[in-house]
Amino acid sequence: MSIGLRGLVFVLMILLGACATQPAPVIVYGPPVDYGPPGDPKNPPQGTFQPNAYLRLCPGMSVSNAPPHDSERWVIDFNPVIVVGQIVMASVPVNDVCLASGIGYRAGRMHEGIDLTSRPPGPVYAAAPGRVIEARWSSGYGNQALIDHGHGVYTRYAHLEYFDAGVFPGAEIGYGQPVGQMGATGNAEAPHLHFEILTGDYNNSQGSKGLAVHSPFGFPAYDFSGY
Ligand SMILES: [Zn+2]
Protein backbone atom coordinates (compact mmCIF):
# COMPACT_ATOMS: atom_id res chain seq x y z
CA MET A 1 0.00 0.00 0.00
CA SER A 2 1.35 3.36 -0.88
CA ILE A 3 -0.08 6.27 0.98
CA GLY A 4 0.66 9.67 -0.42
CA LEU A 5 1.46 12.14 2.29
CA ARG A 6 1.19 15.03 -0.04
CA GLY A 7 -2.12 16.32 1.16
CA LEU A 8 -1.12 15.97 4.78
CA VAL A 9 2.11 17.90 4.57
CA PHE A 10 0.82 20.85 2.65
CA VAL A 11 0.45 23.59 5.18
CA LEU A 12 -0.12 27.13 4.07
CA MET A 13 0.41 29.98 6.47
CA ILE A 14 0.34 33.65 5.76
CA LEU A 15 2.12 35.85 8.24
CA LEU A 16 1.47 39.53 7.91
CA GLY A 17 4.90 40.98 8.05
CA ALA A 18 5.53 43.52 10.73
CA CYS A 19 9.19 42.67 10.91
CA ALA A 20 11.63 45.12 9.42
CA THR A 21 13.66 42.45 7.73
CA GLN A 22 10.67 40.71 6.16
CA PRO A 23 8.30 43.55 5.18
CA ALA A 24 6.41 41.47 2.65
CA PRO A 25 3.91 38.78 3.67
CA VAL A 26 5.69 35.50 4.14
CA ILE A 27 4.14 32.28 2.93
CA VAL A 28 5.76 29.18 4.30
CA TYR A 29 4.94 25.59 3.58
CA GLY A 30 6.55 22.22 3.26
CA PRO A 31 6.93 20.62 -0.14
CA PRO A 32 4.62 17.73 -0.88
CA VAL A 33 6.52 14.52 -0.59
CA ASP A 34 5.63 10.89 -1.09
CA TYR A 35 8.03 8.64 0.73
CA GLY A 36 6.12 5.43 0.21
CA PRO A 37 4.47 3.25 2.85
CA PRO A 38 4.56 4.50 6.47
CA GLY A 39 6.94 2.47 8.61
CA ASP A 40 9.19 1.63 5.70
CA PRO A 41 12.83 2.31 6.64
CA LYS A 42 13.04 4.28 3.47
CA ASN A 43 10.15 6.38 4.67
CA PRO A 44 11.78 8.66 7.27
CA PRO A 45 9.42 11.14 8.88
CA GLN A 46 9.71 14.65 7.65
CA GLY A 47 10.85 17.44 9.93
CA THR A 48 9.08 20.60 10.88
CA PHE A 49 11.17 22.86 8.66
CA GLN A 50 9.15 25.18 6.50
CA PRO A 51 11.04 27.29 4.01
CA ASN A 52 10.70 31.04 3.84
CA ALA A 53 8.79 32.30 0.84
CA TYR A 54 11.18 35.12 0.03
CA LEU A 55 14.90 35.58 -0.18
CA ARG A 56 16.90 38.77 -0.02
CA LEU A 57 20.48 39.59 -0.86
CA CYS A 58 22.47 40.26 2.28
CA PRO A 59 22.25 43.93 3.27
CA GLY A 60 25.34 46.04 2.96
CA MET A 61 27.11 43.28 1.09
CA SER A 62 28.30 43.24 -2.48
CA VAL A 63 26.79 39.93 -3.57
CA SER A 64 28.70 38.28 -6.37
CA ASN A 65 26.77 36.35 -8.98
CA ALA A 66 23.45 37.61 -7.60
CA PRO A 67 20.28 36.35 -9.27
CA PRO A 68 17.88 39.01 -10.59
CA HIS A 69 16.59 41.15 -7.72
CA ASP A 70 14.55 44.28 -7.21
CA SER A 71 15.62 47.65 -5.86
CA GLU A 72 15.13 46.41 -2.30
CA ARG A 73 17.33 43.40 -3.05
CA TRP A 74 14.58 40.78 -2.93
CA VAL A 75 15.24 37.94 -5.37
CA ILE A 76 12.73 38.23 -8.20
CA ASP A 77 10.48 35.22 -8.79
CA PHE A 78 12.08 33.30 -5.94
CA ASN A 79 10.68 29.78 -5.66
CA PRO A 80 10.98 28.23 -2.18
CA VAL A 81 9.94 24.79 -3.44
CA ILE A 82 11.40 23.64 -6.73
CA VAL A 83 11.43 20.60 -8.95
CA VAL A 84 14.84 19.17 -9.79
CA GLY A 85 14.32 16.34 -12.23
CA GLN A 86 11.96 14.03 -10.34
CA ILE A 87 12.76 15.51 -6.92
CA VAL A 88 10.74 18.17 -5.12
CA MET A 89 12.95 20.14 -2.75
CA ALA A 90 13.38 23.32 -0.79
CA SER A 91 15.62 25.69 -2.73
CA VAL A 92 16.94 27.27 0.48
CA PRO A 93 17.15 24.71 3.32
CA VAL A 94 17.62 27.20 6.13
CA ASN A 95 15.34 29.80 7.69
CA ASP A 96 15.65 33.56 7.86
CA VAL A 97 18.84 33.77 5.88
CA CYS A 98 20.10 36.20 3.30
CA LEU A 99 21.98 35.34 0.13
CA ALA A 100 25.69 36.18 0.33
CA SER A 101 26.74 34.64 -2.96
CA GLY A 102 25.31 32.92 -5.98
CA ILE A 103 26.90 30.51 -8.41
CA GLY A 104 29.51 31.73 -10.83
CA TYR A 105 32.88 33.39 -10.99
CA ARG A 106 33.87 35.26 -7.85
CA ALA A 107 37.22 36.98 -7.56
CA GLY A 108 38.49 34.97 -10.50
CA ARG A 109 37.40 31.60 -9.14
CA MET A 110 34.32 29.57 -9.85
CA HIS A 111 31.94 29.48 -6.88
CA GLU A 112 30.02 26.24 -7.23
CA GLY A 113 27.15 26.69 -4.83
CA ILE A 114 25.20 29.41 -3.07
CA ASP A 115 26.11 30.98 0.25
CA LEU A 116 23.37 31.63 2.80
CA THR A 117 23.87 33.27 6.14
CA SER A 118 22.04 34.37 9.24
CA ARG A 119 23.02 35.89 12.56
CA PRO A 120 23.03 34.01 14.78
CA PRO A 121 23.87 30.94 12.68
CA GLY A 122 20.88 28.64 12.41
CA PRO A 123 20.12 24.98 11.86
CA VAL A 124 20.43 23.47 8.39
CA TYR A 125 17.78 21.05 7.10
CA ALA A 126 17.55 18.35 4.47
CA ALA A 127 16.15 19.95 1.33
CA ALA A 128 14.38 16.72 0.35
CA PRO A 129 14.19 13.17 1.66
CA GLY A 130 17.11 10.94 0.84
CA ARG A 131 20.07 9.00 2.11
CA VAL A 132 23.22 10.52 3.58
CA ILE A 133 26.20 9.31 1.57
CA GLU A 134 28.87 11.61 3.00
CA ALA A 135 29.22 13.29 6.41
CA ARG A 136 32.84 14.17 6.93
CA TRP A 137 35.54 16.78 6.77
CA SER A 138 36.62 17.82 3.32
CA SER A 139 39.28 20.39 2.56
CA GLY A 140 37.67 23.67 1.62
CA TYR A 141 34.16 22.52 2.52
CA GLY A 142 34.98 21.78 6.16
CA ASN A 143 32.27 19.62 7.71
CA GLN A 144 30.15 18.71 4.71
CA ALA A 145 27.22 16.40 4.22
CA LEU A 146 26.04 14.99 0.92
CA ILE A 147 22.54 13.59 0.52
CA ASP A 148 21.48 11.29 -2.32
CA HIS A 149 17.83 12.02 -3.18
CA GLY A 150 17.61 9.38 -5.87
CA HIS A 151 17.07 9.84 -9.59
CA GLY A 152 20.58 11.32 -9.92
CA VAL A 153 19.89 14.30 -7.64
CA TYR A 154 22.11 15.22 -4.67
CA THR A 155 22.53 18.12 -2.27
CA ARG A 156 25.63 19.24 -0.38
CA TYR A 157 25.74 21.22 2.87
CA ALA A 158 29.17 22.67 3.70
CA HIS A 159 30.99 24.62 6.44
CA LEU A 160 28.78 23.02 9.11
CA GLU A 161 29.70 23.66 12.73
CA TYR A 162 28.67 20.09 13.49
CA PHE A 163 26.53 17.26 12.13
CA ASP A 164 23.23 16.30 13.64
CA ALA A 165 23.34 12.92 15.41
CA GLY A 166 21.20 11.33 12.70
CA VAL A 167 23.57 12.34 9.92
CA PHE A 168 26.07 9.63 9.04
CA PRO A 169 26.80 7.68 5.86
CA GLY A 170 23.93 5.35 5.11
CA ALA A 171 21.38 7.17 7.25
CA GLU A 172 17.97 7.78 5.73
CA ILE A 173 16.85 11.36 6.26
CA GLY A 174 13.44 12.93 5.83
CA TYR A 175 12.63 16.24 4.27
CA GLY A 176 13.23 19.05 6.76
CA GLN A 177 15.18 16.95 9.24
CA PRO A 178 18.21 18.70 10.76
CA VAL A 179 21.54 18.09 9.04
CA GLY A 180 23.66 20.22 11.35
CA GLN A 181 24.42 23.75 12.40
CA MET A 182 25.57 26.53 10.11
CA GLY A 183 29.25 27.16 10.78
CA ALA A 184 32.55 28.39 9.40
CA THR A 185 34.55 25.16 9.11
CA GLY A 186 36.85 24.75 6.14
CA ASN A 187 37.45 27.69 3.85
CA ALA A 188 34.94 30.13 5.35
CA GLU A 189 35.55 33.55 6.82
CA ALA A 190 32.28 33.67 8.73
CA PRO A 191 29.45 31.26 9.53
CA HIS A 192 27.32 30.47 6.51
CA LEU A 193 25.85 27.53 4.64
CA HIS A 194 27.39 26.67 1.31
CA PHE A 195 24.61 24.77 -0.47
CA GLU A 196 24.85 22.83 -3.71
CA ILE A 197 22.26 21.10 -5.85
CA LEU A 198 24.03 18.42 -7.86
CA THR A 199 23.03 16.03 -10.61
CA GLY A 200 24.71 13.08 -12.25
CA ASP A 201 26.05 9.73 -11.10
CA TYR A 202 27.99 9.69 -7.83
CA ASN A 203 29.65 6.46 -8.88
CA ASN A 204 32.28 8.11 -11.02
CA SER A 205 36.02 8.45 -10.55
CA GLN A 206 35.68 11.86 -8.88
CA GLY A 207 32.72 11.09 -6.62
CA SER A 208 30.74 14.20 -5.74
CA LYS A 209 33.29 16.38 -7.55
CA GLY A 210 32.23 14.62 -10.74
CA LEU A 211 28.63 15.82 -10.38
CA ALA A 212 27.24 18.92 -12.08
CA VAL A 213 26.27 21.83 -9.83
CA HIS A 214 23.16 23.91 -10.48
CA SER A 215 21.77 27.19 -9.25
CA PRO A 216 18.60 26.74 -7.16
CA PHE A 217 17.22 29.78 -8.95
CA GLY A 218 17.10 28.07 -12.31
CA PHE A 219 14.54 25.36 -11.53
CA PRO A 220 10.77 25.54 -11.94
CA ALA A 221 8.52 26.08 -8.94
CA TYR A 222 6.62 23.11 -7.64
CA ASP A 223 3.00 23.39 -8.74
CA PHE A 224 0.88 23.34 -5.60
CA SER A 225 -2.35 23.93 -7.48
CA GLY A 226 -3.37 20.28 -7.19
CA TYR A 227 -3.35 20.40 -3.38
ZN1 LIG B 1 30.22 29.01 -0.92
Specify the oligomeric state.
single chain
The gross shape turns out to be globular
Structural class: mainly beta
The fold-level CATH name is: Glucose Permease (Domain IIA)
Average pLDDT over all residues: 83
In short:
The protein has 227 residues and is mainly beta. The protein has one helix at 6-9, and strands at 13-15, 26-28, 56-57, 81-84, 87-90, 98-101, 104-106, 109-111, 114-117, 123-125, 130-138, 142-150, 153-163, 172-173, 178-182, 193-199, 212-214. It has one domain: Glucose Permease (Domain IIA), CATH 2.70.70.
SSE arrangement:
Elements: H1 6-9, E1 13-15, E2 26-28, E3 56-57, E4 81-84, E5 87-90, E6 98-101, E7 104-106, E8 109-111, E9 114-117, E10 123-125, E11 130-138, E12 142-150, E13 153-163, E14 172-173, E15 178-182, E16 193-199, E17 212-214
Parallel strand pairs: 3-6
Antiparallel strand pairs: 1-2, 4-5, 6-9, 7-8, 9-16, 10-15, 11-12, 11-14, 12-13, 13-15, 13-16, 16-17
Residues 101, 111, 113, 115, 194 line the site of zinc ion.
Spell out the key features of this protein.
single chain; about 230 residues; Glucose Permease (Domain IIA); eleven-stranded mixed beta sheet; two-stranded antiparallel ribbon; about 0% helix; disordered N terminus; binds zinc ion
Describe the structure.
By secondary structure, the chain is mostly beta strands. The chain has one domain (55-222): Glucose Permease (Domain IIA). It has one helix at 6-9, and strands at residues 13-15, 26-28, 56-57, 81-84, 87-90, 98-101, 104-106, 109-111, 114-117, 123-125, 130-138, 142-150, 153-163, 172-173, 178-182, 193-199, 212-214. The strands form 4 sheets. Strands 3, 6, 9, 10, 11, 12, 13, 14, 15, 16 and 17 form an 11-stranded mixed beta sheet that branches. Strands 1-2 form a two-stranded antiparallel ribbon. A two-stranded antiparallel sheet has the order 4-5. A hairpin with a 3-residue loop joins strand 11 (130-138) and strand 12. The longest helix is centred in the N-terminal third of the chain and has 4 residues, at 6-9. The structure holds zinc ion. Zinc ion binds at residues 101, 111, 113, 115, 194.
